[in-house]
Write a structure and sequence with these properties.
Elements: E1 4-9, H1 30-39, H2 56-61, H3 63-71, E2 87-91, H4 100-107, H5 128-138, E3 144-148, H6 151-165, E4 169-172, E5 177-183, H7 184-203, E6 210-219, E7 223-226, E8 231-234, H8 242-248, E9 253-256, H9 259-262, E10 270-272, H10 277-290, E11 296-301, H11 303-309, H12 314-326, H13 328-333, E12 340-344, E13 363-368, E14 375-380, H14 384-393
Parallel strand pairs: 1-11, 1-12, 2-14, 3-4, 5-6, 9-10, 9-11
Antiparallel strand pairs: 2-13, 4-5, 6-7, 6-8, 12-13
Helix pairs in contact: 1-12, 5-7, 11-12
């Protein structure tokens, strides 16, 4: 029986979304703008990387061609050299929103047709009854922040006061999210998680997609740095995803990175949650070597988004893309006859764009595996076509949304 590996490069969009104007993102293009910046020398950083964006393996799979099909522009240095090795195209997000749950749920066959709840870009941003309930139920002396903010900037701004007063830092963004940052040692990691569970219950009434624990370490003298112990408390998908379908028919499921959190740990099988892109990719490759016939691995590589997109770090984002590209041969070496790998994204996060939030973009779709015929799969009218194609490859009837290209 065939097997499948689905890798989401978190935020690696390729521009072109027709409804970008609704989100204030007309012209955003994560991969395209990174490639252009690198070609112009704006992606150079001493000791990290330099020169044009170098992604020979993804280019051979059709990444540059997918970018060109999405935006009409072939990014610098992303034309394939030699014969194509993969099937390529791009996906159009139909879900409302440009956040992680919307993108991943649609990939897994459940487009978001409803409106998420959002907090206004005001100070304070949270309703008074919400903060009062969080303070009372969490036995807190108060909260800090209470506004839209960058996750790293808000820790720099309030970290010292948080340690002095014991008040957690609570903030949001343009996504449907409430985030709570606290010091792992002075506040306590488990206490932070429990506070987020309380926040999850409170936020249900506001239709908020995620409550995220953002632990950090450091001192006011040395500075603060977020740790790898982030945890997302998400509302569950409203209907069955491909994970539910696979679990019900007894297939082996492995989820890597924050996939378990995104799907509220429903039908997420064996969960592996290392810290960082390299560790998550290594875990996915290791799991693939032991995956039974008919099995499925669903992996998320979050660093593109959390470490570089939100921080508007073009050199860092470019280096992360190049690091992933260098490891594609490792994925290929772990494949058996009949295996399928799909590489895609859940939204954009253009590091050249204004602000620090996600951007509404198309997603690349790159497929490869032994025996897979290279070529264009064209424009896919929903991310749900990805999940539908996984099920088709695994020989399982799709009870949900999406049209397979296989």
């Amino acid at each position: 029986m065939p097997r499948a590996l689905l890798i989401v490069l978190d935020s690696v969009g390729i521009g072109g979304a027709e409804d970008a104007d609704v989100y204030g993102d007309v012209g955003a293009d994560t991969v395209g703008h990174i490639a252009e910046a690198c070609a112009e020398g704006r992606g150079d950083q001493a000791g990290l990387r330099q020169g044009p964006l170098h992604l020979p393996h993804m280019a051979a799979l059709g990444l540059g061609l997918a970018c060109e099909a999405s935006t009409g522009r072939l990014p610098p240095n992303l034309a394939p050299r030699g014969a194509l090795k993969g099937s390529w195209g791009y996906g159009v997000e139909t879900s409302k929103g440009k956040d992680t749950p919307s993108g991943h749920w649609e990939i897994a066959g459940v487009p978001v047709a409803f409106d998420w709840g959002y907090f206004p870009n005001t100070i304070p941003t949270f309703p008074e009854e919400l903060t009062a309930a969080l303070i009372a139920r969490g036995n807190l002396p108060g909260i800090l922040g209470n506004k839209h903010a960058s996750g790293t900037a808000v820790i720099d701004e309030y970290g010292a006061e948080h340690m002095r007063t014991g008040q957690p830092i609570v903030y949001t963004s343009v996504d449907s999210v409430l985030q709570i940052a606290a010091h792992e040692e002075s506040f306590g990691l488990e206490r932070l998680y429990e506070l987020c569970r309380i926040g999850r219950e409170i936020c249900d009434a506001y239709n908020i997609g995620r409550v995220i624990a953002r632990p950090f370490l450091g001192t006011p003298e040395t500075g603060f740095k977020r740790t790898g112990n982030r945890k997302d408390f998400a509302t569950p998908p409203p209907s069955d995803t491909i994970l539910d379908t696979l679990t019900k028919v007894g297939r082996s499921v492995v989820t890597v990175g924050k996939i378990g959190d995104i799907f509220a740990h429903r039908s997420t099988g064996r969960e592996i949650k290392p810290n960082g892109n390299d560790a998550c990719l290594s875990a996915a490759i290791d799991a693939l070597r032991d995956l039974p016939d008919g099995g499925f691995i669903f992996a998320n590589l979050v660093d593109f988004d959390s470490e570089f997109g939100h921080r508007r770090d073009i050199p860092g984002y470019a280096a992360a893309l190049e690091a992933f590209d260098r490891r594609i041969p490792e994925i290929e070496a772990a494949l058996k006859d009949g295996d399928l790998v799909i590489i895609t994204a859940d939204h954009g996060n253009d590091p050249s764009w204004r602000g620090s939030d996600h951007t509404r973009e198309h997603a690349p779709i790159l497929g490869f595996g032994p025996g897979l015929t290279p070529g264009s799969i064209g424009r896919r009218e929903s991310f749900a076509d990805i999940g539908a194609s996984v099920l088709a490859h695994l020989g399982i009837r799709n009870p949900g949304k999406g049209t397979p290209w296989l």
